[in-house]
Write a structure and sequence with these properties.
The complex is a heterodimer of chains A (225) and B (414). Chain A is of the alpha/beta class and 225 residues long. Chain A has eight helices and 14 strands. In chain A, 43% of the residues lie in helices and 24% in strands. Chain B is built from eight helices and twelve strands. Chain B is rod-shaped and about 160 Å long. Classes of the chains: A alpha/beta (225), B alpha+beta (414).
Chain lengths: 225, 414
């Protein structure tokens, strides 16, 4: 699967590529409007991460271009502008999601995964990891063919981990994923810890492997290695 | 006082004053001239009598004709002639009349007589009275005329000013339109209109560039923060990192989070100040409070707090996003600064929202809503309450803090 990253800040683009590329994804990068336009016209991408302010033009213009050419590439806008107008405009022009800078790469990966799942209808709203099986449409989780009851936060955590397999996710990324506003870092960490503990317990009870590892409490990682 | 009223007052007062002084002067001058003329006729009569005596060596007959009377009285000796004003009874009019009398000596065959020529002053007084009446009438008429003329004229003269003023009053920075002015030949108004137009153009331009500045500031700050964040996210993937490294990285993460929150809050403050949340609709505070409490439920139980939500139906006309931020900031503030096992109470009446939480001592009332003011126990940005205050100020709501019976009370009066 091919991803396109349109971002004029080269270091940010480099981090995004380094984080996103894996056995499933290849990443291409465009640093300005013209490069992006060339790439969009010549190939199809599963998902495009699109910055709005670009040298040589606006990301909104690229969105219009995609729409005019009846392209079905998924698009997530990554913008420094946290304005409702921009968000509405972007979504109206056919973008699938809108992410405000600064963001965590794990959040970007989770959202790109969600877009790609939605784009591919043929049973691909399914996430599978060893014995874990999630139907994201029905929001159902099965372990070894057996359904498992999770709270909303536990479910969100599990999907987030599965979208960032084998990656260390910082506690801060988990906090900002689960809550739109944060209270105190200390307490949020405690609550996250409780949620993860409960999630691990519920998975373990169904005979699931213990995949979620803690890195001295500053981050977590879902891995089977 | 209106300019027109002020102008009317001065112009009418000065007109009346001038006319009164002129009237008085006129009165005295006229009286002097008429008396002088009366005295002159008395002297003509005197000469006639003296001539008659010289020619005929006898007194002319004493007469009373109309308002003139001639009388003779015997006297022993001669005396200097005199003229005086006195009250005399007029038999025809049957009343006392102000008269002028000239007494002079006449000698007929060695006998001295006092000759008195008297003339009534009544006619003169009447003339003066009429003149005075006319003057007074003129004063009143002129004042009334001036009053209405001023009203009409001044109103017409000031019309271009009124047009400009109402245009300024309805000027809205969020939907700027050119200031409407009337064409006028008056130099001052033209100058005013020109400058008002120039000023509004400049203000609109400044406002736009300020808005742009905010957008740019947001972009310029968020992007480096995004770079730092993304590098951290990549860095923690390194399996060679030890516990100490990870703890340091955690500190950097927290600092970046705080900085990003700080810049977001500052931008929000600037956007409220710049009136960039002009969209308004009816929002239900009851519903907003309920949702916020639900969302913050985990922190509430983490701190073993209880929330007693007694908010009734309370509808306010404002921007929904700002309404949410306002209530969220107050609820978060109450959660953060409650002692464990405390009880947070939310209540409302017709136009008031109050949130109360237990505390140990009163906070600095004068500074509590200042930007970056924090109590020593707070680990926040110091902007939460400042934003709440800014939102209330923006809509003309009153945000109050009170400390009573070991409880902090924050109230919004809508």
């Amino acid at each position: 699967m091919k991803l396109l990253i349109v971002e004029d800040e080269k270091e940010l683009a480099a981090s995004m590529v380094s984080y996103l590329k894996n056995e499933n994804y290849t990443c291409e990068v465009a640093f300005n409007f013209k490069q992006a336009l060339d790439k969009i016209e010549t190939s199809d991408y599963e998902c495009i991460a699109l910055d709005i302010t670009l040298p040589g033009g606006s990301g909104m213009q690229l969105l219009k271009e995609l729409k005019n050419n009846k392209k079905t590439d998924g698009v997530i806008i990554i913008s420094a502008k946290n304005s409702i107008d921009d968000r509405i405009n972007g979504l109206r022009l056919g973008a699938d999601d809108y992410l405000v800078k600064p963001f965590h790469l794990s959040e970007l990966a989770a959202r790109i995964n969600a877009i790609i799942r939605r784009k591919m209808y043929n049973g691909n709203n399914i996430i599978r990891f060893n014995e874990i099986f999630i139907d994201t449409l029905a929001k159902e989780v099965m372990v070894k063919e057996e359904p498992i009851e999770l709270t909303r936060k536990e479910y969100e955590l599990l999907v987030y981990f599965l979208s960032n397999q084998r990656k260390v996710i910082s506690k801060n990324a988990l906090i900002s994923h689960l809550w739109s506003q944060e209270m105190g870092t200390g307490e949020s960490a405690d609550i996250i810890y409780t949620h993860i503990k409960n999630l691990r317990k519920k998975l373990h009870e169904k005979g699931c492997g213990d995949y979620i590892k803690s890195l001295y409490g500053m981050g977590y990682k879902l891995t089977d290695q | 006082m209106k300019l027109q009223a002020q102008y009317n007052k001065i112009s009418i007062a000065s007109t009346v004053l001038v006319l009164l002084i002129a009237g008085a002067g006129y009165y005295f001058l006229l009286q002097y001239v008429l008396k002088d003329q009366l005295d002159e006729t008395l002297r003509v009569e005197q000469v006639e009598i003296q001539d008659f005596v010289q020619t005929n060596h006898l007194l002319p007959p004493a007469t009373t004709y109309k308002d003139q009377r001639i009388e003779f009285k015997k006297t022993d000796k001669t005396f200097p002639q005199s003229i005086k004003t006195l009250m005399l009874y007029n038999a025809d009019e049957k009343e006392n009349e102000l008269s002028r009398q000239l007494d002079f000596p006449v000698e007929v065959n060695g006998q001295y007589y006092i000759a008195s020529v008297t003339k009534s002053q009544e006619a003169t007084e009447e003339i003066i009275g009429v003149i005075l009446l006319i003057t007074l009438g003129l004063i009143i008429l002129l004042s009334i005329l001036l009053f209405f003329a001023n009203r009409f004229l001044v109103k017409r003269l000031w019309k271009p000013f009124q047009t400009t003023l109402s245009s300024i009053k309805s000027f809205d920075l969020n939907a700027p339109s050119a200031i409407k002015t009337d064409k006028t030949t008056i130099h001052e108004f033209n100058e005013l209109n020109e400058n008002v137009s120039m000023m509004t153009e400049r203000v609109v331009k400044d406002y736009l560039s300020l808005k742009q500045f905010i957008d740019h500031a947001s972009h310029e700050m968020q992007t480096p923060l995004a770079v730092v964040n993304s590098k951290l996210d990549v860095l923690i993937q390194d399996p060679a990192l030890n516990e100490k490294n990870l703890q340091d990285l955690q500190v950097i993460y927290d600092a970046v989070d705080k900085m990003s929150k700080l810049s977001q809050s500052l931008l929000l403050l600037a956007r409220i100040e710049n009136n960039q949340f002009s969209e308004k609709q009816e929002v239900n505070i009851q519903l907003i409070a309920k949702n916020i409490i639900q969302e913050l439920d985990e922190w509430i139980s983490e701190r073993s707090l209880t929330v007693n939500n007694r908010i009734n139906d309370l509808k306010v006309n404002m921007n929904p996003q700002l309404a949410n931020t306002l209530i969220t900031n107050l609820v978060i503030n109450a959660i953060k600064h409650s002692n464990k096992q405390g009880n947070i109470l939310l209540r409302s009446d017709k136009n008031t929202f109050t949130i109360s939480n237990p505390g140990t001592q009163t906070l600095n009332k004068a500074r509590i809503f200042d930007r970056f003011w924090k109590s020593e126990y707070s680990d926040g940005t110091g902007l939460g309450l400042a934003i709440a205050k800014q939102i209330c100020d923006h809509y003309g709501f009153l945000l109050q803090y009170d400390f009573k019976e070991r409880t902090h009370h924050f109230s919004i009066i809508f």
